[in-house]
From TrEMBL:
NCBIfam families: PRK09636.1, sigma70-ECF. The gene is sigJ. Residues 9-67 form the RNA polymerase sigma-70 region domain. Residues 291-314 are annotated as: Disordered. Residues 108-159 form the RNA polymerase sigma factor 70 region 4 type domain. It comes from Nonomuraea helvata. Pfam families: Sigma70_r2 (PF04542), Sigma70_r4_2 (PF08281), SnoaL_2 (PF12680). Residues 179-275 form the SnoaL-like domain. This is RNA polymerase sigma factor SigJ.
Length: 314
């Protein structure tokens, strides 16, 4: 393998993870990486010495991603209903994008919060808080002063922590909460669902106008969310399977119709892990392609209209 190609391959996972967490779209991330390669290859093969290839590649990728952000924002203005980042199965060893995100996974809930930052604030937050870059390194990448980067980092960190304070919930606890939640929803158990939901819970659902979704706007409040979810049960196709997978670093439920993904759901729990305060549902088929096919070893569909809750595919 030529040296320029090898250097790019060695850094591809890092580049993918940084850009994906900026843009929330696998297709746009792949386009940015292609543009990065086209900018990198001639320079690296010209014989000109590049002292720090990693920093050089990250700088190219980030600048290309920032340039693409404007067209992405225009697309989202025309989007039907809430827009959620494209989910990626981080536990799938066979998926190249999943492999790239395994080391530095950002949860769906945090990705949603990051989208409310300016593109530059998002870059600074990701590079410093997620990837461990020093402010001086970020300043060189963005061609800004260290002081301005520190100010951006402080503003971004305050915004993120105000909307989503730092806490970790045990993956096993999140998995059990997901199973209870699904059983209540698909079983039409309004009382059980009300017990699981926090008073200030919010439901985001992304169908993109191409698939059924519980609401065209974020829905806030325990009573509204519970009634919306249980009333929509009769519109769910019969014979679905639920597979539990790691998506964006979090345990999630992926619902399959045959071997094709029908929808994906991930929950955000309260700091004590006792209740659900965020529900993210994606049914837009264009966003489910990186969740892979269903693996049916021993799997069985549930009763008509209700997915099976005992089929596990980790």
């Amino acid at each position: 393998m030529p040296e320029a190609t090898q250097v790019f391959v060695d850094h591809r996972e890092l580049l993918f993870s940084v850009v994906y967490n900026m843009l929330g779209s696998v297709a746009d991330t792949e386009d940015v990486l292609q543009e990065t390669w086209l900018a990198w290859a001639p320079r690296s093969e010209s014989g000109e010495e590049i002292a720090n290839p990693r920093a050089y590649l990250v700088r190219i990728a980030i600048n290309r991603a920032l340039a693409r952000q404007e067209s992405i924002d225009r697309r989202r203005e025309q989007y039907v209903g809430p827009w959620l980042p494209e989910p990626v199965a981080t536990g799938d060893q066979e998926d190249a994008s999943g492999e790239a995100l395994r080391a530095e996974s950002v949860s769906m809930a945090l990705l949603v919060v990051l989208q409310s930052l300016s593109p530059t604030e998002r870059v600074v937050f990701l590079l410093h808080e997620v990837f461990g870059y020093a402010h001086t390194e970020i300043a060189e990448i963005l061609d800004r002063t260290s002081a301005s980067v520190r100010q951006l980092a402080h503003r971004a960190r305050e915004h993120v922590h105000a909307r989503r304070p730092r806490y970790d919930v045990d993956p096993g606890l999140r998995r059990r909460a997901t199973e209870k939640f699904l059983a209540a929803v698909f079983g039409g158990d309004l009382t059980g669902l009300l017990r699981l939901l926090a008073p200030d819970v919010t439901l985001w659902s992304d169908g993109g106008g191409k698939a059924p979704q519980p609401g065209l706007r974020p829905v806030h409040g325990r009573d509204k969310v519970a009634r919306l979810l249980t009333s929509g049960f009769d519109r769910v196709p019969a014979g679905l399977d639920v597979h539990h997978r790691e998506v964006n670093g979090d345990p999630s439920a992926v619902v399959f119709d045959g071997d094709a993904p029908f929808g994906m759901m991930v929950l955000d729990l309260t700091p004590d892990g006792e209740q659900v305060n965020g529900i993210y549902i994606i049914t837009n088929p264009d966003k489910l392609t990186h969740l892979g096919p269903a693996h049916r070893e021993g799997g069985a569909s549930g009763p008509a209209g209700a997915p099976s809750l005992d089929h596990v595919d980790d």
